[in-house]
Design brief:
By secondary structure, the chain is of the alpha+beta class. It contains 4 helices and 4 strands. Helix 3 packs antiparallel against helix 4 (97-111).
């Protein structure tokens, strides 16, 4: 199921639309394994583990390139052996399908 989201492309969000409700966002979670809702369903987050700093840095480089391609940019925290990624559509102060598209694509990068 995550595969269908990963095949989509993020669409520009101009704001003015409501974010997904917590229930709507929760319905996407089975399609984005390993991701969790934060901030009462307004953010999507996942922690990734790696063998060392280089592996974390390489992963973050791939995520950064993907974010530029998709025009949808996550908040990233990383260091030796880990990376934390948080997604939110800032213009609507909550989650949009784009966040789940990015989560699916980032999940594929982690598995590659």
């Amino acid at each position: 199921m995550a595969e269908d989201l990963a095949r989509k492309t993020c669409t520009p969000c101009r704001g003015g639309i409501p974010p997904l409700t917590r229930e709507e966002a929760a319905a996407y979670l089975p399609r984005t394994p390993g991701w969790d809702l934060l901030d009462d369903g307004h953010k999507l987050h996942r922690e990734f583990k790696f063998a060392d700093f280089r592996a974390s840095l390489d992963f973050i480089g791939k995520v950064g390139s993907l974010a530029e391609e998709e025009g949808h940019h996550p908040d990233i925290c990383f260091g030796w052996g880990y990376a934390g990624i948080t997604l939110q559509t800032h213009k609507i102060r909550g989650l949009h399908e784009n966040d789940f598209i990015m989560a699916a694509k980032i999940g594929e990068l982690a598995g590659a």
